[in-house]
Specification:
- It is a single chain.
- The chain is globular and about 60 Å long.
- Strand 7 and strand 8 form a beta hairpin.
- 41% of the residues lie in helices and 18% in strands.
- It is of the alpha/beta class.
- Helix 4 packs across helix 10, helix 5 packs antiparallel against helix 8 and helix 8 packs parallel to helix 9.
- The model has no long low-confidence stretch (mean pLDDT 96).
- Bound molecules: adenosine-5'-triphosphate, magnesium ion and fe (iii) ion (FE).
- Magnesium ion binds next to loops.
- Its EC number is 2.3.1.234.
- Belongs to the KAE1 / TsaD family.
Length: 346
């Protein structure tokens, strides 16, 4: 079975082709991605209307590119998958509309996929795919959750953020430091030559004893420090503040991941979502997990943030497990998107 997958939930248009046969691990045949980051940068964040329009411009050329990379045509596709939610409604409608229309025109089934399931299963595209069950730390721009994952489709949320996501904490702090959007990777780069101990920043809920998170207070503390150091602080001070911010976020993510591992008794951790690309987070998790005999799995660096490959992969894994039965598939050309949708909810 060859799955053509479409992602358009936010500011990345992604298309990919994954092949699945029997029990063998699904294989990525080709993928293409267009990031709108440069377009939104002038506004300091994603402008939903511009995002939708750009998805419209990009999605079909990307699909053509993927097919030509794979040396295949639309006739070689057996199933079309698309991100149904959560995300920006207008952006989701573009990918879903194109995917379902293609499926209807080719008389193929269409399979809606949960964006976070895509992130969660993205490590299956890596050279070292995980085995079930595992604890998942999902750290993206909009979500921060710890989950127990027993199989594809069997997700239990152990804890999540009560306010900002970890990616949001990175992005908002970076913005306060005058860095471009999305600030996470920029803040991480600035932090490389900073001293994390130069500032004492809060680690909210660190000792709550539950796998929950809160990052709003950190952003406020960063704001207070930014005001103190003035508009043109020396580069070293800014680097120190960046390093302290990153350290505070990483500390909390590591401590809560360990708590979830302890609570579940599982010895495997999967990290997914954009913040999973953070080098200090990977380092700290690797060290903490090695001590406890826990194996950690990550998506490839380029597949931490949004992409089409993870959507096609999630669909392929669902097909392989018989989870894409007639009930889940649409053949009537109809579709709906779910801008707000909790993973695990019906
Ligand atoms: P969601 O999946 O919850 O809808 P999203 O799709 O916008 O949100 P992702 O694409 O998974 O989120 O990740 C984007 C986030 O990852 C941004 O907040 C970005 O700053 C952050 N990020 C990316 N690389 C790094 C890095 N190296 N260090 C820290 N943060 C990073
Ligand atoms: Mg993005
Ligand atoms: Fe995402």
């Amino acid at each position: 079975t060859r799955v053509l997958g479409f992602e358009s939930s936010c500011d990345e248009t992604g298309v990919a082709l994954v092949e699945v046969a029997g029990d063998a691990p699904p294989r990525l045949l080709a993928q293409a991605l267009h990031s709108q980051i440069a377009m939104h940068q002038a506004y300091g964040g994603v402008v939903p209307e511009l995002a939708s329009r750009d998805h419209v411009r990009r999605v079909l050329p990307l699909a053509r590119e993927v097919l030509s990379q794979a040396g295949l045509t639309l006739r070689d596709v057996d199933l079309v998958a698309y991100t149904q939610g959560p995300g920006l409604a207008g952006a989701l409608l573009v990918g879903a509309g194109v995917a379902v229309s293609l499926a209807a025109a080719l008389d193929l089934p269409a399979l809606p996929i949960h964006h976070l399931e895509g992130h969660l299963l993205s490590p299956f595209l890596s050279a070292d795919p995980p085995e079930f069950p595992f604890v998942a730390l999902l750290v993206s721009g909009g979500h921060t959750q710890l989950m127990r994952v027993d199989d594809v489709g069997a997700y239990e949320i152990l804890g999540e953020t009560i306010d900002d996501a970890a990616g949001e904490a990175f992005d908002k702090s970076a913005k306060l430091l005058g860095l471009p959007y999305p600030g996470g990777p920029h803040l991480a780069r600035l932090a490389e030559f900073g001293n994390p101990e130069a500032f004492d920043l809060p680690r909210p809920l660190l000792h709550s004893g539950k796998p929950d998170f809160s990052f709003a207070g950190l952003k406020t503390a960063v704001l207070t420090q930014v005001k103190k150091i003035g508009d043109s602080p020396c580069e070293q001070t800014r680097a120190d503040l960046a390093a302290a911010t990153q350290a505070a976020i990483v500390d909390v993510l590591v401590k809560k991941s360990l708590l979830a591992l302890k609570e579940t008794g599982l010895k495997r951790l999967v990290v997914a979502g954009g913040v999973g690309a953070n080098a200090r987070l990977r380092e700290a998790l690797n060290a903490a997990c090695a001590k406890r005999g826990v194996r950690v799995h990550y998506p490839e660096l380029a597949l931490c943030t949004d992409n089409g490959a993870m959507i096609a992969m999630a669909a392929a894994l669902r097909v392989q497990r018989g989870l894409a039965g007639e009930g889940a598939l649409r053949r009537d050309g109809g579709f709906e998107v779910r801008p707000r949708w909790e993973l695990g909810a019906a």
